[in-house]
Amino acid sequence: MVGGLARLNTTVRFGDSEEEVCFLRLAKLEEAASFEGLLHATEREQAAAVPNPLQRSRFVVSRGLRRTMLSACTGVSADSLVFAHDGEGKPRVPGLTGWDFNLSHAGDYVAVVVGCGSVGVDIEKYREVRDMESIVGRYFHPEERDAWHALPLARRPAAFFLLWSAREAAMKCAGLGLAKGLSVTRVDPGILEQGTGTAWVGDRLLQLRSLPAPEGYELVICRQEHPALI
Ligand SMILES: CC(C)(COP(=O)(O)OP(=O)(O)OC[C@H]1O[C@@H](n2cnc3c(N)ncnc32)[C@H](O)[C@@H]1OP(=O)(O)O)[C@@H](O)C(=O)NCCC(=O)NCCS
Question: How far is the centre of ligand 1, averaged over its atoms, from the C-alpha of 176 (Å)?
């Protein structure tokens, strides 16, 4: 939604307290070589086993970035961070309470967000989607659908990717994949005009921000205060 160049290191403030700040970094795949030295030995082995160069670069950048960002934010040494997935597939660091992280890849970019509570991020690259209208009809919440149909035709493709990105960031913040998250997610369509808004995933109320993204991309982050911090 927002034009202009990406700010590669972004601090996003959701409120006044320190806990309401999220840290976002957007990195390009062409930077992969500079992330290799940041990987844990096990990740280097995993990277070497990825045959496709694009997928290998995505792996290297995302693993290097999340390790260094998490270490910088939490003070835990980068080498001692151990990653696992929870039951729904959301990557976590067991035992790291209070903090959360999430990552997304699209096109030439990897986005990683770190923050307190729960966080989610999604980056989407504009592409041709022939059945856009039927996807909106099938998967978007009626309020999102109505807002999308009310837009002039020329705005609909970008709005589709912004709403899709917002929906995914919200689902990923809540820790759900598409299979469980799609039907229980509702995004405030106000994000189309204001670049900010709320989302519901089931009974969880989340906050969304659309961020400046490179030309041809949408980038949205999502946050929910951890119940223990409220
Ligand atoms: C999570 C998901 C929504 C992301 O989709 P995407 O737009 O293709 O991919 P993105 O690049 O934005 O995000 C991928 C990252 O999200 C993270 N992720 C995976 N599952 C997640 C979950 N349940 N919650 C939050 N984050 C998740 C991972 O870090 C993953 O990257 P990695 O595999 O390199 O570690 C999607 O992969 C998904 O739904 N996965 C679960 C399986 C599922 O339900 N499939 C149904 C298909 S209809």
Answer: 8
Cβ neighbour number for residue 98 with a 10 Å cutoff? 12
- pLDDT at 9 (0 to 100): 74
Please work out whether the CB of residue 211 comes within 6 Å of at least one atom of ligand 1: no
Does the beta carbon of 183 sit less than 6 angstroms from any atom of ligand 1? no
Ligand 1, pocket-test mutation among 172, 219, 224, most atoms within 8 A of CB:
172
Per residue in 184-205, pLDDT tens?
A: 999 999 999 999 999 999 999 9
The fold of the 9-229 domain, in CATH, is Ribosomal Protein L22; Chain A (3.90.470)
Whether 114 lines ligand 1, by a CB cut-off of 6 Å, is: no
Atom number of ligand 1 nearest to Cα 180: 44
Query: What are the residues whose beta carbons fall under 8 Å from the beta carbon of 206, sequence distance 6 or more?
Result: 118, 120, 170, 173, 174, 198, 199, 200, 222, 223, 224
Rounded to 5 degrees, what are φ and ψ at 184? -110, 10
The answer to whether residues 176 and 201 touch, using CB atoms and an 8 Å cutoff, is: yes
